[in-house]
What we know:
This protein has 123 residues and is an all-beta fold.
Amino acid sequence: QVQLVESGGGLVQAGNSLRLSCVASGGTFSRYSMGWFRQVPGKERELVSGISSIGGGTRYADSVKGRFTISRDNAKTTLTLQMNSLRPEDTAVYYCAARSGGLAFQSAGYDYWGQGTQVTVSS
Length: 123
């Protein structure tokens, strides 16, 4: 069983940056592909970015390409999402998720979830 704990959310003005972290425990972190998802009320949870367990390949939603960077530190069992040039439309609850095997692009493909952290971007 893997436990995931996110941190780093908050309220920022448009154009500023935030750095989200997700610390994993209870499993072999390096074996899991990891993803950052976000969700706003009334909408489905969407993949923001993912990073694979093998090779560290990454994937980004078109809306965040060039602004967000995902990374992982297997020694520290930590997943990070650096978010720059934030926009009001980035406002959401952000979730960290883990799955065995390769990257998946739908939330249903992930086995473990954090509790979420709120990101609010004011205009």
